[in-house]
Design a protein that fits this description.
single chain, about 250 residues, alpha/beta, TIM Barrel, 8-stranded parallel barrel, about 40% helix, globular, binds phosphoenolpyruvate, Triosephosphate_isomerase_AS, Triosephosphate_isomerase
Length: about 250
């Protein structure tokens, strides 16, 4: 079975009640490629509003989740709380959390495990900094990030994971990876899945690209064999998101 194309929209810490209503209503009424899975990720405060307003074809993701079930963890949100409001996806390991909030590989891996065991889908973000790319460490870095999660999941649990390859130097910078750069890393991730997890995980896991994806560059990126979709930041707040969802039409 071919991998279903997947487009995620990460609103980051942007939006208000009014603007999020308008984005979701726009998506509800847009003609979206029915063969693409679309999941939007507003700030936590707007998750209930988004889930209530979005039609059933649109998935909704938290931007983060904690690795403990409940208790004295001020400011955190649990897997069960997300499920309680019918939010079935979460991002984990976004580079802004890795770099700005200093989340490490092991903590991120525990969060992926908690989310997967609770039945959520996980958009697991990985990627190298500019310094790491320039030192030819891209594959080493993404392999390290993947290995941390591999320690926590069973082979079967990878079915709940979408891997988002997001080079840190391309996020929010307007500097998109070339189609060759994206394909090269995606192919390496697929090879890793084959060797470290299973042939099935390698064939079935969606590997999506993120980093300055726009309505202008999405079509060429979408043609690459191992690019199964996108994680979109800035452009997910704009009408251009519809064109990105429809990049294969
Ligand atoms: C992101 O936040 O995951 C992202 C890819 O951002 P942008 O599209 O703005 O680069």
């Amino acid at each position: 079975m071919p991998r279903q194309f997947f487009v995620g929209g990460n609103f980051k810490m942007n939006g208000s009640t009014e603007s999020i209503k308008s984005i979701v209503n726009n998506l509800n009424s847009a003609k979206l490629d029915a063969s693409t899975e679309v999941v939007i990720s507003p700030p936590a405060l707007y998750l209930p509003l988004t889930r209530e307003l979005a039609n059933e074809k649109l998935g909704v993701a938290a931007q983060n989740v904690f690795d403990k079930p409940n208790g004295a963890f001020t400011g955190e949100i649990s897997v069960d709380q997300l499920k309680d409001i019918n939010v079935n996806w979460t991002l984990v390991g976004h580079s802004e959390r890795r770099v700005i909030l200093k989340e490490g590989d092991e903590f991120i891996a525990r969060k992926v495990k908690a989310a997967v065991e609770g039945g959520l889908g996980v958009i697991f973000c990985i990627g190298e900094t500019l310094e790491e790319r320039e030192a030819n460490k891209t594959i080493e870095v993404v392999t390290r990030q993947l290995n941390a999660v591999a320690k926590e999941l069973t082979k079967e649990q990878w079915a709940q994971v979408v891997i988002a390859y997001e080079p840190v130097w391309a996020i929010g910078t307007g500097k998109v990876a070339t189609t060759e750069q994206a394909q090269e890393v995606h192919a390496a991730i697929r090879k890793w899945l084959h060797e470290a997890i299973s042939a099935q995980a390698s064939a079935n896991t969606r590997i999506i690209y993120g980093g300055s994806v726009s309505e202008k560059n999405c079509r060429d990126l979408a043609k690459e064999a191992d690019v199964d979709g996108f994680l979109v930041g800035g452009a997910s707040l704009k009408p251009a998101f519809v064109d990105i969802v429809n990049s294969r039409l």
